[in-house]
Design goal:
Blueprint lengths: L1 H5 L2 E5 L3 E6 L6 E7 L6 E4 L2 H11 L4 H10 L5 H7 L19 H7 L3
Antiparallel strand pairs: 1-2, 2-3, 3-4
Length: 113
Protein backbone atom coordinates (compact mmCIF):
# COMPACT_ATOMS: atom_id res chain seq x y z
CA UNK A 1 0.00 0.00 0.00
CA UNK A 2 2.82 2.39 0.84
CA UNK A 3 4.35 2.08 -2.61
CA UNK A 4 1.04 2.75 -4.30
CA UNK A 5 0.49 5.87 -2.19
CA UNK A 6 4.06 7.06 -2.83
CA UNK A 7 3.44 6.84 -6.58
CA UNK A 8 0.44 9.14 -6.53
CA UNK A 9 -2.52 6.98 -5.64
CA UNK A 10 -5.11 7.53 -2.97
CA UNK A 11 -6.60 4.62 -1.01
CA UNK A 12 -10.00 5.11 0.58
CA UNK A 13 -11.38 2.59 3.04
CA UNK A 14 -15.09 2.16 3.70
CA UNK A 15 -16.95 -0.24 5.99
CA UNK A 16 -16.44 -3.31 3.78
CA UNK A 17 -14.75 -1.89 0.69
CA UNK A 18 -11.70 0.06 -0.41
CA UNK A 19 -10.92 2.05 -3.53
CA UNK A 20 -7.60 2.94 -5.18
CA UNK A 21 -7.82 6.28 -6.97
CA UNK A 22 -5.42 8.28 -9.11
CA UNK A 23 -4.61 11.51 -7.22
CA UNK A 24 -4.36 13.45 -10.50
CA UNK A 25 -7.76 12.13 -11.63
CA UNK A 26 -9.72 11.38 -8.43
CA UNK A 27 -12.78 10.36 -10.40
CA UNK A 28 -10.77 7.52 -11.98
CA UNK A 29 -11.01 4.34 -9.89
CA UNK A 30 -7.97 2.15 -10.55
CA UNK A 31 -9.14 -0.71 -8.33
CA UNK A 32 -11.88 -1.62 -5.91
CA UNK A 33 -11.64 -4.17 -3.14
CA UNK A 34 -14.11 -5.97 -0.93
CA UNK A 35 -13.15 -7.36 2.44
CA UNK A 36 -13.04 -11.08 3.07
CA UNK A 37 -14.68 -11.45 6.46
CA UNK A 38 -12.92 -14.74 7.23
CA UNK A 39 -9.37 -13.33 7.10
CA UNK A 40 -9.78 -9.53 7.02
CA UNK A 41 -7.95 -9.14 3.70
CA UNK A 42 -9.24 -7.18 0.74
CA UNK A 43 -9.90 -8.93 -2.58
CA UNK A 44 -9.00 -6.36 -5.25
CA UNK A 45 -10.87 -6.17 -8.53
CA UNK A 46 -9.50 -4.32 -11.54
CA UNK A 47 -9.21 -4.63 -15.28
CA UNK A 48 -5.99 -6.02 -16.73
CA UNK A 49 -5.08 -2.70 -18.38
CA UNK A 50 -5.52 -0.86 -15.06
CA UNK A 51 -3.33 -3.45 -13.34
CA UNK A 52 -0.58 -3.05 -15.93
CA UNK A 53 -0.77 0.75 -15.69
CA UNK A 54 -0.65 0.67 -11.90
CA UNK A 55 2.31 -1.74 -11.90
CA UNK A 56 4.22 0.32 -14.45
CA UNK A 57 3.63 3.48 -12.43
CA UNK A 58 4.86 1.85 -9.22
CA UNK A 59 7.93 0.23 -10.78
CA UNK A 60 10.63 2.66 -11.81
CA UNK A 61 14.15 1.68 -12.77
CA UNK A 62 15.97 3.57 -10.04
CA UNK A 63 19.06 2.03 -8.50
CA UNK A 64 17.08 1.21 -5.35
CA UNK A 65 14.45 -0.62 -7.42
CA UNK A 66 17.08 -2.59 -9.32
CA UNK A 67 18.64 -3.68 -6.03
CA UNK A 68 15.21 -4.64 -4.71
CA UNK A 69 14.50 -6.90 -7.72
CA UNK A 70 18.01 -8.35 -7.36
CA UNK A 71 17.20 -9.32 -3.74
CA UNK A 72 13.73 -10.63 -4.66
CA UNK A 73 15.32 -13.14 -7.00
CA UNK A 74 17.80 -14.37 -4.40
CA UNK A 75 20.76 -12.19 -5.48
CA UNK A 76 20.58 -13.28 -9.12
CA UNK A 77 23.36 -11.86 -11.30
CA UNK A 78 22.46 -8.59 -13.01
CA UNK A 79 22.68 -9.98 -16.53
CA UNK A 80 20.08 -12.60 -15.60
CA UNK A 81 17.96 -9.86 -14.06
CA UNK A 82 18.21 -7.92 -17.30
CA UNK A 83 16.97 -10.95 -19.27
CA UNK A 84 14.04 -11.46 -16.87
CA UNK A 85 13.06 -7.79 -17.13
CA UNK A 86 12.08 -8.25 -20.77
CA UNK A 87 8.32 -7.49 -20.86
CA UNK A 88 7.50 -10.88 -22.43
CA UNK A 89 8.95 -12.68 -19.38
CA UNK A 90 7.47 -10.96 -16.32
CA UNK A 91 4.45 -8.68 -16.15
CA UNK A 92 5.04 -5.62 -13.97
CA UNK A 93 8.80 -5.83 -13.67
CA UNK A 94 10.57 -2.72 -14.96
CA UNK A 95 13.11 -3.05 -17.77
CA UNK A 96 16.61 -3.14 -16.31
CA UNK A 97 19.35 -1.94 -18.62
CA UNK A 98 22.32 -1.97 -16.24
CA UNK A 99 24.54 -4.97 -15.64
CA UNK A 100 27.35 -3.20 -13.77
CA UNK A 101 26.17 -3.33 -10.14
CA UNK A 102 28.18 -5.40 -7.68
CA UNK A 103 26.43 -7.21 -4.83
CA UNK A 104 28.49 -7.25 -1.62
CA UNK A 105 26.59 -10.25 -0.25
CA UNK A 106 27.23 -12.26 -3.40
CA UNK A 107 30.95 -11.43 -3.34
CA UNK A 108 31.23 -12.46 0.33
CA UNK A 109 29.49 -15.74 -0.43
CA UNK A 110 31.95 -16.53 -3.21
CA UNK A 111 35.02 -15.98 -1.04
CA UNK A 112 36.79 -18.98 0.49
CA UNK A 113 39.03 -19.15 3.55
Amino acid sequence: MGTIVDKGCLIIFGANKCWVLNVKQPSKVLAMGTINTSNGLYHMQMELQQLVTLMMETNSTTTATIKLWHKRFGHIHYQGLQVLSNPKHLLGMPFISTTSNICKHYMLGKQHK
